[in-house]
Design brief:
The complex is a heterodimer of chains A (about 120) and B (about 110). Chain A is built from no helices and 11 strands. With about 120 residues, chain A is mostly beta strands. The model of chain A has no long low-confidence stretch (mean pLDDT about 95). Chain B is an all-beta fold. Helix content of chain B is about 0%, strand content about 45%. Chain B has no helices and 10 strands. In chain B, strands 2, 4, 5, 8, 9 and 10 form a 6-stranded mixed sheet that branches. Chain B is globular and about 40 Å long. The chains are: A mainly beta (about 120), B mainly beta (about 110). The interface between A and B is medium-sized, with 21 and 22 residues.
Chain lengths: ~120, ~110
């Protein structure tokens, strides 16, 4: 059974960089066909897809993030990471990692990690 | 970008049928996926590719689509099915989610 666990700081200062790591257990990045994805949920419900890195290393990001996001894989640690630069209060959210299946942006997410609350505040 | 519209809330009595709709532009040309999120928990996939159930999802939960509206139907609704339901698809540049529907079983 594939499990995803998010880790990283819960509090980030405005204008700084938010960094989170998602560690995979019960699976391997070397097994192709999946998209390793970050999604966030703002207070009050809404889900926002942030971006993914594919099994081949291709990345694709939500254009609304205006180039602030990067996602990378560390196969030796069986993990993938998110870096979101120049954060503001609008980046305060519950951050999830998930495994995507499908093709490109035509994908669905299963399973999801447990989510971690990140607050942007001075 | 396109939007996906869901009703904010749906109520159903235990054992009855709940239907949650999701409307969007060109939805007839795209696949729709559905997730269930219980309070304080991560979403779980309940329907993929319009009407396919992942392993472990009961047959009482079905997905369908007609024109630009997708529907998630839960027959014989149980209290364990309370929570938020989100639909998801894609537009030209991004993956998108509906705003979510809170299902109350009472």
């Amino acid at each position: 059974q594939v499990l995803l666990q998010v880790s990283g700081p819960r509090l980030v200062r405005p204008a700084q960089t938010l960094s989170l790591t998602c560690t995979l257990s019960g699976g391997s990045f070397s097994r192709g066909g999946y998209y390793w994805t970050w999604i966030r949920q703002h207070p009050g419900k809404g889900l926002e897809w942030l971006g993914y890195i594919s099994y081949s290393g291709t990345t694709y990001y939500n254009p609304s993030l205006n180039g602030r996001l990067s996602i990378s894989v560390d196969s030796s640690e069986n993990s993938f990471s998110l870096r979101l630069t120049s954060v503001t209060g609008a980046d305060t959210a519950l951050y999830y990692c998930a495994r995507g299946q499908g093709s490109g942006i035509r994908q669905w997410f299963d399973p999801w990690g447990q989510g971690t609350q990140v607050t942007v505040s001075s | 970008s396109s939007d996906l519209t869901q009703p904010p809330s749906v109520s159903v009595s235990p054992g009855q049928t709940a239907s949650i709709t999701c409307s969007g532009t060109d939805l007839d040309k795209k696949n729709v996926y559905w997730y269930h999120q219980r309070p304080g928990q991560s979403p779980i996939l309940v329907i993929y590719q319009d009407n396919q159930r992942p392993t472990g999802i009961p047959e009482r939960i079905t997905g369908s689509k007609s024109g630009s509206t997708a529907t998630l139907t839960i027959s014989g609704t149980q209290t364990m099915e309370e929570g938020d339901y989100f639909c998801q698809t894609w537009d030209t540049t991004s993956l998108i989610f509906g705003g979510g529907t809170k299902l109350t079983v009472l």
